[in-house]
């Protein structure tokens, strides 16, 4: 008999985790125990609960026999029934939502940016912070995990198994969480700015929008795959593209002169600084 997972706040990120866990391939005999037999999704409005219901209808049967119940305005009952609680509200609502339920004996998984283990520790000693991103909705997400000292090895493995279904996940010390919030959580927006810029360069020089977009997507996807598959440092691969006196080095020099690199580094740092202030509001 499995356990029940309650998703407190099932919006964009809650639904990404729900989809990944529900649609995970059949677990091995060793990992079967990490999957819930039931997921209860919690929203405050009927409309949002209806959206989750529609999402579930679009799924096939769960390979791990997971049953899903969608609810609204029923947090207390859902949390009482659950052994594991995933908090997926916006940061400014986290306090109100946590104050209205009792998670003290539950494993509390938090998607909430800026909320520290110490702050979450007022509600449960068993806390894992998860920082993930929107590509998780499509199985291409990244997640960074950070556990409180009281999380057992069994529960660490459980979280890794469940969250790994969104794409990839790693564990880091909590001191890295604000940086992870910026790099992983906000990262897609930064990459989309890069994609948009590449597309606009194509359009500016006469390549139609559709084709510019197609080229930009494949350049970003192909480059990421090349770095992953070769294991090389990006600068090594970058120099392989640079013919002496050629086009690529000329373009790179102008980008460096315009401060593209320091703009990206400082932008990610600024996002991390904002993340560090989120839980303090
Ligand atoms: N979006 C991102 O790219 C991203 C990336 C990294 C981390 N995060 C973190 O993920 C968390 C969720 O973000 P999100 O983008 O998924 O937000 P979201 O789409 O707004 O989802 C939040 C959900 O919380 C529900 N909710 C609000 N009040 C509630 C209550 N009293 N009880 C139960 N549910 C309630 C809302 O449902 P109703 O509509 O019914 O109120 C909504 O579906 C945030 O803390 C954020 O820091 C987000």
Automatic annotation (TrEMBL):
**Can you cite an annotated GO cellular component?**
cytosol
Give the Gene Ontology MF terms in alphabetical order.
identical protein binding; pyrroline-5-carboxylate reductase activity
Q: Name one GO biological process term.
A: L-proline biosynthetic process
Which keywords are on file for this protein?
Amino-acid biosynthesis, NADP, Oxidoreductase, Proline biosynthesis, Signal
Q: Which PROSITE patterns match?
A: P5CR (PS00521)
Pyrroline-5-carboxylate reductase catalytic N-terminal domain mapped to chain residues: 5-114
Which reaction equation describes what this protein catalyses? L-proline + NADP(+) = (S)-1-pyrroline-5-carboxylate + NADPH + 2 H(+)
Q: What class of enzyme is it?
A: oxidoreductase
Q: Which pathway, per its entry?
A: Amino-acid biosynthesis; L-proline biosynthesis; L-proline from L-glutamate 5-semialdehyde: step 1/1
Q: Which Gene3D superfamilies match?
A: NAD(P)-binding Rossmann-like Domain, ProC C-terminal domain-like
Record-annotated residues binding NADP(+)? 8-13
Q: Which residues bind NADPH?
A: 75
Specify the Pyrroline-5-carboxylate reductase dimerisation domain's residue ranges.
174-277
| Signal peptide location | 1-20
InterPro entries, per the entry: 6-PGluconate_DH-like_C_sf, NAD(P)-bd_dom_sf, P5C_Rdtase_cat_N, P5CR-like_CS, P5CR_dimer, Pyrroline-COOH_reductase
What's the EC number here? Answer: 1.5.1.2
Family indicated by similarity:
Belongs to the pyrroline-5-carboxylate reductase family.
What's the protein here called? Pyrroline-5-carboxylate reductase
């Amino acid at each position: 008999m499995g356990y029940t997972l309650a998703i407190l706040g099932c919006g964009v990120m809650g639904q990404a985790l729900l989809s990944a866990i529900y649609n995970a391939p059949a677990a091995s005999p060793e990992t079967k125990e990490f999957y819930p037999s039931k997921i209860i999704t919690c929203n405050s409005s009927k409309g949002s609960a209806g959206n989750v219901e529609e999402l579930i209808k679009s799924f096939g049967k769960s390979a791990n026999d997971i049953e899903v119940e969608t609810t609204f305005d029923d947090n207390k009952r859902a949390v009482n029934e659950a052994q594991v609680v995933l908090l997926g509200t916006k940061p400014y609502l986290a306090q109100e939502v946590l104050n209205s339920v009792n998670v003290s004996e539950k494993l509390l998984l938090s998607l909430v940016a800026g909320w520290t283990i110490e702050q979450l520790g007022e509600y449960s000693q068993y806390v894992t912070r998860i920082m993930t991103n929107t590509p998780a909705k499509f199985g291409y997400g990244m997640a960074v995990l950070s556990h409180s000292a009281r999380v057992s090895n069994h529960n660490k493995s459980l979280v890794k198994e469940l969250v790994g279904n969104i794409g990839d996940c790693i564990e880091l010390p909590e001191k890295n969480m604000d940086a992870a919030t910026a790099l992983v959580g906000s990262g897609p927006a930064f990459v989309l700015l890069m994609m948009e810029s590449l597309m606009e360069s194509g359009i500016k020089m006469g390549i139609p929008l559709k084709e510019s977009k197609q080229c930009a997507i494949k350049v970003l996807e192909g480059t990421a795959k090349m770095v992953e598959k070769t294991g090389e440092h990006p600068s090594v691969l970058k120099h392989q593209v640079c013919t002496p006196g050629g086009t690529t080095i000329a373009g790179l020099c102008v980008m460096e002169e315009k401060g593209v690199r320091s703009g990206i580094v400082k932008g990610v740092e600024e996002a991390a600084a904002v993340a560090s202030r989120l839980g303090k509001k």
